């Protein structure tokens, strides 16, 4: 019998939810250790991940402690996707999936994160930084848009772990770009259709229900800021 995997996380960020979606898809039992963002650089979180970044996992079934969301996803696929529900076994498809996961890790995640920081959280508006990262977000989406031309999925004929790794950040597009837009992906119709195929899956809906509950328990708004706080300067004042 598979014992629950501990998922250590701070609920505001997108990266932990990549892991939760994969666990839900594979029907692997798990339990969440929810940590406040201001405490992830302190014990007990840094006892699990000395880098103080979420997520991290403890798998009692293999006695493995692992951090970095991409490494965790690859581990979960190798260890628990025995039926290839979210992966492929062929040489080409297997490596193409890893390629897209690495693009998510090196392209989408960092650029979307910096865009969100300078558009929403940074106390000073820096037009050069906002322009740079907003343009990089659009460049990344353009790569995805082209790859999805006349296709439902970048690799193969089904939704995979590589596809799902993009969902949490793409679902934050309104906050990343700092605009109250109900259709922030409208300039990228292939990406928008791909995204909607994935957010309609039960795994993602379940993950977002859990996130909403954990955020509410910590008194946080959807963008990760405490309720009633509008920017990082106010947040820092609140923490003093």
Structural class of the helix and strand makeup? alpha+beta
Low-pLDDT sequence parts:
none
The profile of the biggest β sheet is: 4 strands, mixed
Q: How would you sum up the global shape?
A: globular
Proportion in β-strands: 5-15%
Mean pLDDT across every amino acid position: 93
Total strands: the figure is 4
Walk me through the structure:
With 240 residues, the protein is an alpha+beta fold. The chain is 53% helix and 8% strand. The chain is built from 11 helices and 4 strands; from the N terminus they run βαβαββααααααααα. It has a 4-stranded mixed beta sheet with strand order 2-1-3-4, with helices on one face. Strand 3 (56-59) and strand 4 (64-67) form a beta hairpin. Helix 1 (15-26) packs across helix 10 (202-217). The radius of gyration is 18 Å and the shape is globular.
What labels describe this entry?
11 helices; 240 residues; 8% strand; globular; alpha+beta
Please write out the topology.
Layout: E1 5-9, H1 15-26, E2 30-34, H2 45-48, E3 56-59, E4 64-67, H3 69-80, H4 91-121, H5 127-147, H6 161-165, H7 167-170, H8 173-176, H9 189-199, H10 202-217, H11 232-239
Parallel strand pairs: 1-2
Antiparallel strand pairs: 1-3, 3-4
Helix pairs in contact: 1-3, 1-10, 4-5
Summarize the structure.
Helices cover 53% and strands 8% of the residues. The protein has 240 residues and is of the alpha+beta class.
């Amino acid at each position: 019998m598979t014992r629950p995997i501990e998922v250590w996380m701070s609920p505001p960020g997108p990266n932990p939810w990549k892991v939760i979606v994969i666990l839900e898809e594979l029907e692997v039992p798990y339990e969440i250790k929810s940590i406040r963002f201001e405490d992830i650089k302190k014990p007990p979180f840094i006892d699990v991940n000395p880098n103080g970044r979420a997520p991290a996992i403890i798998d009692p079934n293999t006695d493995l402690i692992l951090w970095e969301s991409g490494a965790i996803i690859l581990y979960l696929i190798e260890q628990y996707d025995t039926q290839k529900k979210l992966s492929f076994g062929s040489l080409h498809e297997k490596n193409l999936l890893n390629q897209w996961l690495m693009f998510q890790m090196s392209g989408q995640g960092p650029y979307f994160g910096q865009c969100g920081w300078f558009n929403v959280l940074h106390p000073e508006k820096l037009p050069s930084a906002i322009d740079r990262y907003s343009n990089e977000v659009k460049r990344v989406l353009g790569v995805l848009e082209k790859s999805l031309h006349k296709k439902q999925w970048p690799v193969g004929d089904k939704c995979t772990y590589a596809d799902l790794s993009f969902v949490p950040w793409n679902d934050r597009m309104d906050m990343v770009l700092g605009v109250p837009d109900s259709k922030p992906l409208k300039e990228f119709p292939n990406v928008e259709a791909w995204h909607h195929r994935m957010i309609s899956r039960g795994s993602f809906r379940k993950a977002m229900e859990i996130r909403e509950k954990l955020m509410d328990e910590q008194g946080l708004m959807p963008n990760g800021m405490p309720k009633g706080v509008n920017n990082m300067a106010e947040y820092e004042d609140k923490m003093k």
